[in-house]
Amino acid sequence: MEDGTEAPSGGQRKPLLRALGGETLEKPPWWLMRQAGRYLPEYRALRAQAQGFVEFCLNPGLASEATLQPVRRFGMDAAILFADILLVPYALGQKVEFGEDGPILEPIAEGSGIAGLGRNGFSRLDPVYETVRRSRAGLPAETALIGFAGSPWTVATYMVEGGASRDFRRVKAWAYRDPQGFGALIELIVDATIVYLSGQIIAGADAVQLFDSWAGVLPEAGFERWVIDPTRRITARLKERFPTVPVIGFPRGAGFFYSRYVAQSGVDAVGIDTVVSGSFARDQLQGRVTVQGNLDPVALLVGGRVMEEEVRAIRGALAGGPFIFNLGHGVLPQTPPENVAALARLLGEPVDSA
Amino acid sequence: MEDGTEAPSGGQRKPLLRALGGETLEKPPWWLMRQAGRYLPEYRALRAQAQGFVEFCLNPGLASEATLQPVRRFGMDAAILFADILLVPYALGQKVEFGEDGPILEPIAEGSGIAGLGRNGFSRLDPVYETVRRSRAGLPAETALIGFAGSPWTVATYMVEGGASRDFRRVKAWAYRDPQGFGALIELIVDATIVYLSGQIIAGADAVQLFDSWAGVLPEAGFERWVIDPTRRITARLKERFPTVPVIGFPRGAGFFYSRYVAQSGVDAVGIDTVVSGSFARDQLQGRVTVQGNLDPVALLVGGRVMEEEVRAIRGALAGGPFIFNLGHGVLPQTPPENVAALARLLGEPVDSA
User: Fold this and answer.
1) Binary contact (A298, B169; C-beta < 8 A)
2) What is the ipTM of this complex?
């Protein structure tokens, strides 16, 4: 896997990679966004061993253990690297802290704000590649390892707003007022993301996912310019270097623009959020790419028959084509782990009787 | 206007009502969501005269003055009643407070939580009807007065979550686990909303708008059951009593489901949020209802050429059919009032040269 181009032949490939390659599997592979995290008692115990969250993410021993925990317990078809999308701004030299109520960044100022970023190279993230290597080594042969990064638009929202936002007024105002200056920030993130994901692939990631959590706040022109275009540049560059490594895009909330994203961004698979209907995804997206999603995390939290019925409906709509079962958003911290165990059992059943 | 059924003939009708009636106007009428509010210095001075926000909303002298301020300054084609969607839970007997970071409610518990609600009738909102009367009396003859309420789903999210939410897990969990019990809460809000909007119409509101700010977080089946169906029941009941009073629905974030909302909810006009493209609204919505929207509030905040170009694009797409110019979300408190003045001038120009 050293150069990311190894591709075992048909029958032996990992189920996740087969689905990402366009195969329709009788038992679709599954994993869950935020499958490693606070809902697991073993995660909380691990997390207590590091002071800050950045330190936790950059400790290969702890982060690889966090990566492996859910697979050990539930047997998903993929592990996802334990890290955070804000490690990229951190590596670029921005001050990033994780408080009780979410991340806090020293906001990048419109105009001269990006001048000091990225001066010191990108070595701050070297420990992440070691996490990938250790995670890879700890996984069963049939289990894929997914690397990830935030998409440039979403990462930029945090860098400019200084944290989570309700109105995105600073970042949008910058993008509207000075698209060239804002474009330079996006460009910086695009380049950093290519370096970062390449490093993860070289270290052993089988596939990578781009999380665009705030793709849904931009009107049409902004969506094309700040969501689709940077994504396309990243996928194109990764495909040149690692032609067999699939890229999953997750433009959460893209709504109307999902079709265009799938047609133009160059991704191999698309993550659909909780409000995307199965019929739309089947008819409009699955013909072009593998679809991944989209159980409502609240249905997983509720469990029981509610979850069973939702799972049945999603598989009924999507399991007839290339499909990876997942949530439509991350696992909620309040989720009972036994519900995830029940989901694992449910997904072990063939689709037609599920 | 006492019974809300007066309808002056063609040429004399208020421009907003003509547009809501399906006419295509050479100069489309306009108003802005949150046009009364913190971005206006005269509003901030007024607001300082009352202790709490609920007291402010329920003081007809202050609330009617807040309603009239923006029209006096900018000459919009409509005033919107100054009030808050959480006055309905307040009137039902729930404890509602407005803090620095948003509203705080004593959350309704799943199960028995609604038993005590609505016991004392609905007289707590009588001052709102007086605000409507005073606002009506203070408006120019050509200016419409819009009454409003929150849609049942959105109001329920606040009632169950106890405030703003990021994951909506309490309210969705209740709706998923116990649709009948949750349906009783929705029913209670539907009935209260009919009483409340009827009172506003009788007091002189020319039209009413239902704000469904969180319509975009529900998957397909939930959208039909908790967004469309309660809206349809409200519009049907209002139409029985006040056949000539138009209803505007604003299912913010409805994305994929806008077409269905327009086809099934019974509204006369639909508010579109900032991410809805003009071509979609023109081709898919405007054939059925009047379209209202959808300048990005951040473009208004930025002003200048950014705003001008966005306004031109929106009018270019939508002014060929029944259309009301508005924002895609509320005015941001940081908006310079002079940008709203510039918008008023811009909208005074004929569409083809705008």
Assistant:
1) yes
2) 0.93
